[in-house]
Amino acid sequence: MSKHVFQLKEKAWTYKDTYEIKDQEGDVIFLVKGKVFSASNTFFFQNIQERNLLQIKKKLVSFRPKYKIKRAGKTIAVVEKKWSAWKAKFKVDIPGPNDYTIEGKFWKREYEFFRKGEKVAEVSKKRWSWSDTYGVEIEEDEDVQLILATVVTIDLVLKDLEQEDNADEE
């Protein structure tokens, strides 16, 4: 079975969080844009013509970090960090029996997506020498946009947790 391969690069040091997602040839094919200091915590997954394909929105009142991913105004997934004494996990709750479980070393950007026990995608920073660049391999039959939006969402959750840790130290 063939795989889709992408490179996700976060553009740092701007007033917006902007992510570029490139294909195997290095061409930018998706953008994810959102305002960092916005009260809405909403990000837009766009094609290269900047047409909104998905919306990623943080649920502001939640015990755990939780984001909704919408397509055409309809929630297609809820991404939530699961707390575990043994290891970190994320769950992508999709209507029906198609949920993803995501496990790995999130702070190192080394993790895998599973559906019904089968690995369907992998995120790895090992292949890339840049500091904020990840490789993402996705099985052919999977929802590429949803998985890539989830990778960005995990990055947003990690940034939120990092900011909370920094605030606690002050």
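That was protein one. Protein two is written in the same sequence-then-structure order:
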Amino acid sequence: MIKINDTVKAFLGIVLILGLFVLVSYAINANSDYINELINNSRIHSFAILFVLLFILATVIAPISVLPLVPIASYAYGWELTSFLMVIGELTGSSIAFLLARKYGLPAVSKLVSLKEIQKYENRIPNENIFWSIVFLRMAIPVDVLSYVLGLFSKIKFRTYFTATLLGIIPYSIAT
């Protein structure tokens, strides 16, 4: 049996997500008339709610990714509203993850996220300038993992965490 190391698994996961992103983008362009009909119908608003809920779920329970849905939302709502919906979903999901980790600790977190993944990032939490560190770490480390790590291993106040997270996810949401 062939054994695949973690780097190859991560690379294949990224390729799969990007492939789905491209496939969905192509499908949107090929079916633009149908999507325009959906947008003009009231059912499309329920997609916005579902989109936010899926972002929350994907942030709380790793390794789910909703990135392939971004082209659909962008086409339906434009990049501005899609970015706003992403920020709402990720901010809510990351806040839930942080509070779960803070309140219930390692036993609860281990059921939602890989402990290996958490340990990998644990030492990256700085002791000084934590606010700006969180803002910049948000751009480099997956939102879900960092939320759990900060909830478990930092003494940061929730208000500070929330504000730094908000500032850190806005550029990602706009760029996506």
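The mean pLDDT is 79. Keep this in mind for the problem set.
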